[in-house]
Every structure is written in structure tokens, then in C-alpha cells.
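hey can u check if this looks right to u? its 255 residues, i copy pasted from the old doc so theres a chance i mangled smth
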Amino acid sequence: MLCVSSSLFAWNANGHVVISQLAFQQLKPKTQQWILSILGSDMNLERASIWMDQVKGVRQMHRWHYVNLPYGDKRYFPKLDSINGLVAIEYSRQILANKDSDQTDKRLALLVLIHVIEDIHQPMHAISWYSRSFPYGDKGGNAWRMRYGNLHSFWDSAGGWLKGFTWNQKSRVAKKLEELRGEHCDWQHIKLDPKLWVAQSHQLAIKYAYFPPRQKYKFLKYTKITQKVAKLQIRMAACHLTAMLNTLETRGGGV
């Protein structure tokens, strides 16, 4: 049913690998073992984090990458899609928390959970702009054309911070991780509420993503802000993923 696709939907592959690596470093050793046992010998953490961006053929899964909360002209607002990232996270969470879940189901659930939690922290994965120009929404900025690419892809690359290397260049990934060093994730005190995480991403998109200026000097400032916000969201995604996985390992029985 599944085949490889070259298209990417969210944080570019570099972003997903950086987040998953940062989260893995903060996991309990027992949780690390649990994750690796579910993934199996043919799937490492890096590939696990980008797996959902490399498969196509399951149309429903495409809609799991985002929660397009509406913004703009309310006259054009649609009903919230019943198939979205929040549904995917809850589906995966229930399977992983169930000690009796089939191992194959657990593997798929883990692949989905890792990727989608990372996705919903990309602000453009929590919004769609509706207006006279975009009566059906701008699809998270994918339809919002910029000089180079579109608004969505600009934020996928963290304003260019995630460009210039590939996800399997370990030394370059390690350098990005060093740039993100900060306070250790206090995962035990994090509220595991993906709806809240999506709402926060939505507000960041409203405050910082719309509307990119065209003037060069103003756009350079916009780029710096994008990079700053994206780095904060990458750290937050890693911390939330850490909290979710550590909690699920305890409930799911571990290895």
C-alpha cells in the first residue's frame, strides 16, 4: 500500500531529525530501550521521525500532519476537519498505552506519534488563512506565494536555519543540537494536552507568520524572528515529545 514520495509536508527532514534527537537525549533510559524495541532493527530513530513524510498511498494519513485552525474572514470558515493531527495523536497514544496492543500496531502508532507531535509545533501546521483571495484557505501557507517558494516551506526550514545540510549528516545535525542547548526539559511537570500545543502554534502563526514583508531590510528582520520562534518551537516539540513518550512507556509496560 505504501510507496516512497519525495515530497515533504512539515518541518523539513532536518527539522524532524533534530527534534527527535533532542527528545531522545532527554528520555529515561528505559524509555529509550522501549522505543528502540518497538521500532526494530530495520528502523532507526532518524528514519522513524521522517517516515510519514516519505510514504503516500494512504490518503487519510496525509491529513494527520496538521490541524488547520481557521484565521481571517469568518465568512469563509469551514467546519474543522474530523481527520487531523489531534485525532492521529490520540489514536497513537491509546495504542501505545495499551499493554495488550499488537507489536505491529505499536510500531505504526509510534511512527505516527513522533512525527505528528513534531509537526503540530510548526506554526503553519496549525492554521489556514481565509479571505476573499483564499476562500478555501491558504492551506497552512502552502498557497501563499513568496519570492522563493511559499510561506509554509519558509517556516518548514525555520526561516532557512534548517537548510544547507541533509538529515543524515550527523556532524551537521550535532551542530544544530548544540545551538539548541538550554534548560533541561522538565517533562514531569508538562501538561500532556496536544490541543493546547496546537492552540499555541496557531497563535504564533497569527502573531509572527502573517504577513511577510516584501521590502528586503524588513524581510531580513522577519527572517530573524522566524528563526527565533522556530528554534523555540523545536525545543518545545522535543520537550513535549519527551514527556509524552516517558509517560506512555510507564503506562504501556515498557520492555
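The chain has one domain: 3-163+178-249.
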